[in-house]
Design goal:
alpha/beta, Rossmann fold, 6 strands, 41% helix
Length: 138
Amino acid sequence: MLPITILLAEDHRIIREGLRELLLTESDLHVIGEAENGRQAVSLTRQLCPDVVIMDVSMPLINGIEATRLIMQFTVKPKVLVFSSHCDDVYIAQAMAFGASGYLVKQTDTLFLPEAIRGAHHGTAFFCPSKLTHAALS
């Protein structure tokens, strides 16, 4: 089985490096690129065609919600998991409206990230935590 390819879009280098190290422990997940701003995330997604993009909300040049909207206009659409410190339902609703496959807060247990990536890749939405999304997915 081919590994699930991942683009990390996060403006904080230390968080990108931590995510990469976490995902290195998973044999079926492979980080193929890293973006430090939203514009670069859109460009690298077009260039590398990852299966899944881990997208931070608050990034320079283009925020992650807008970058997700732009990426969802591509012919070949990756799954986008929004990864943010914001757990406001407004951000979650925007991410869903623009086609995100999931929304994880950065306070989420590290065990959830690999499972969320696998789930998104296979078409299962993963939203954590929000009253809005629990109601919408019920």
